[in-house]
Specification:
Layout: E1 2-4, E2 9-10, H1 15-30, H2 41-47, E3 50-58, E4 61-62, H3 70-85, H4 91-106, E5 112-113, E6 116-124
Antiparallel strand pairs: 1-6, 2-5, 3-6, 4-5
Helix pairs in contact: 1-3, 1-4, 3-4
């Protein structure tokens, strides 16, 4: 589960991308979700009587052309379309994001850090 969704970063800072990440988080919260749910999950599992076996953080560095680049790229395109439909982002904001993403991906040395995920393994006691 995500532990720090706001940790999704581009190597070249971009206001349109920062606004996109904030809109994603706001849309999840508006629907009753929590983008950083992994922060609470271990305690909930303990309270449910499970024993924590491991907690392991995961993040990836994705560069244009890498397999790991596919998920963020697809999510930026589809997610921004959905955010417009849900009115968390306007068309101008989506257009700015997609233009910035194209320019960003073409920059030498471009990379992105994917959001921090916490792998939680728990077992019944």
């Amino acid at each position: 589960e995500y532990a720090d969704y706001n940790s999704w970063q581009w190597s070249h800072p971009c206001d349109a991308f920062t606004r996109f990440v904030a809109a994603v988080m706001a849309s999840w919260r508006a629907g009753g979700g929590e983008p950083d749910i992994a922060r609470d999950l271990p305690q909930w599992l303990l309270e449910a009587g499970l024993a924590l076996q491991s907690l392991e953080p995961h993040t990836f560095v994705a560069r244009p052309g890498d397999h790991a680049w596919r998920w963020p790229e697809a999510f930026i395109h589809a997610g921004s379309r959905q955010l417009v439909a849900l009115e968390f982002l306007d068309e101008a904001g989506r257009d700015a994001l997609l233009a910035a993403y194209s320019a960003f991906a073409a920059q030498p040395g471009a990379y992105q850090l994917t959001p921090l995920v916490l792998e939680v393994i728990a077992r019944r006691t």
